[in-house]
């Protein structure tokens, strides 16, 4: 399964709606094809998707919605405590009011057992009171799945058209039918098709909860090369799970090259007192990247540069853009304030500019910057592109008030 597009409608922060497309928008030259992920026929999508913009523009809110959509697509219960804690301390991640509805449509490609199809999952989410515990929760009030073969698709118009009048072969499955009566009200009907092996779940790693908290996001064995890339002074770092009397405990052994002593730790959180924030974050991020690359999935990272220097951030991006490493069509989706990172990307249609004016808006860089050979960082820093640099008058007011305060008694 590969995501093609997410369409958001009727959410309070996106009143005018918005689209997040994983496909390339601009023309794909013959020389560029090997750097992109080929879907079928003349359809390609980028290996990275970047969201950038000013502080408080809404980048994290967009990621919350993407993460919510990904979990919905994996048929996870959207009211589960674990899922809600991943997004935010506020369980109302879609910002829906009481008895308010929001709509999310997901277009995706599937190829299984030789059958290739393009699909549209149209889901209406309602926030209302659960009669069993009197708490406000999310419920799927409406859900329709459209399916069609790729055989007759020639253009993007064909790709996203699911009008039964134009294509009689489109299959339409409504959640209200008897086939889905046993489904929980907060689980997508895709769960039935996963059990029937009609579709294969899209693998994804969500790193949102590790944006501001430095802790390990995985406890699998980390290759020594990854460890020493992040901190060359480490000789080895071993993770073991010790089970005694039915209870599991962590045992961590850490040794530095300059010290003969082996440090024994009982909890992963103790690593924060010994290793740098970047190293701790990097261990989890790079292992998650390896798993995503292996499974051809999607990885979400908010504020990629947080606790990383430029070279570490670039190395992570290059893991996904390297065609010899990314052989399964994995996609890195991230936000950044570091405009210099954008200069290393090949295509403007892989970059979204995020802005906020009562509502959150998305615009692809390719809509404003037609040439790929111009330094994007210069356009951002100088404010030539809209919504990419603080306004001049706001900057002048800031300087004047600081000057006034510094001279006052």
From TrEMBL:
Name of the protein in its database record: ATPase AAA-type core domain-containing protein
Organism of this sequence: Pseudolactococcus reticulitermitis
Coiled coil spans: none
GO molecular function term, any single one: ATP binding
Domain ATPase AAA-type core stretches: 51-343
UniProt-listed InterPro entries: ATPase_AAA_core, P-loop_NTPase
């Amino acid at each position: 399964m590969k995501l093609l597009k997410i369409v958001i409608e009727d959410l309070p922060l996106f009143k005018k709606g918005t689209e997040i497309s994983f496909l390339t928008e601009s023309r794909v030259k013959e020389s560029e094809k090997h750097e992109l992920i080929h879907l079928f026929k003349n359809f390609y999508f980028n290996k990275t998707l970047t969201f950038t913009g000013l502080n408080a523009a809404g980048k994290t809110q967009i990621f919350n919605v993407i993460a919510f959509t990904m979990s919905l697509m994996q048929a996870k219960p959207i009211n589960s405590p674990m899922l809600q804690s991943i997004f935010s301390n506020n369980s109302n991640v879609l910002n829906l009011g009481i008895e308010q509805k929001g709509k999310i449509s997901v277009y995706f490609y599937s190829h299984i057992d030789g059958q290739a199809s393009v699909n549209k999952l149209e889901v209406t989410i309602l926030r209302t009171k659960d009669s069993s515990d009197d708490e406000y929760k999310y419920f799927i009030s409406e859900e329709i799945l459209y399916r069609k073969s790729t055989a007759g698709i020639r253009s993007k118009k064909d790709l996203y058209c699911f009008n039964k009048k134009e294509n009689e072969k489109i299959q339409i499955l409504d959640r209200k039918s008897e086939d889905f009566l046993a489904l929980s009200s907060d689980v997508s009907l895709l769960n039935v098709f996963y059990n029937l092996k009609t579709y294969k779940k899209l693998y994804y790693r969500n790193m949102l909860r590790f944006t501001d908290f430095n802790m390990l996001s995985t406890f699998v064995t980390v290759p020594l090369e990854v460890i020493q890339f992040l901190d060359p002074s480490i000789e080895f770092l071993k993770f073991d799970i010790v089970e005694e009397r039915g209870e599991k405990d962590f045992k961590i052994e850490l040794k530095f090259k300059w010290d003969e002593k082996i440090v024994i730790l009982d909890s992963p959180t103790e690593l924060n007192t010994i290793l740098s924030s970047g190293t701790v974050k990097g261990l989890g991020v790079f292992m998650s990247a390896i798993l995503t690359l292996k499974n051809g999935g999607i990885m979400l990272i908010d504020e990629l540069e947080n606790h990383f220097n430029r070279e570490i951030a670039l190395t992570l991006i290059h893991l996904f853009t390297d065609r010899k490493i990314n052989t399964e069509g994995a996609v890195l989706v991230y936000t950044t304030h570091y405009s210099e990172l954008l200069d290393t990307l090949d295509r403007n249609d892989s970059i979204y500019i995020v802005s906020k004016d009562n509502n959150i808006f998305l615009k692809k860089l390719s809509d404003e910057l037609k040439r790929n050979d111009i330094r994007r960082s210069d356009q951002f820093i100088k404010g030539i592109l809209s919504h990419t640099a603080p306004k001049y008058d706001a900057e002048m007011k800031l300087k004047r008030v600081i000057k006034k305060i510094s001279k006052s008694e």
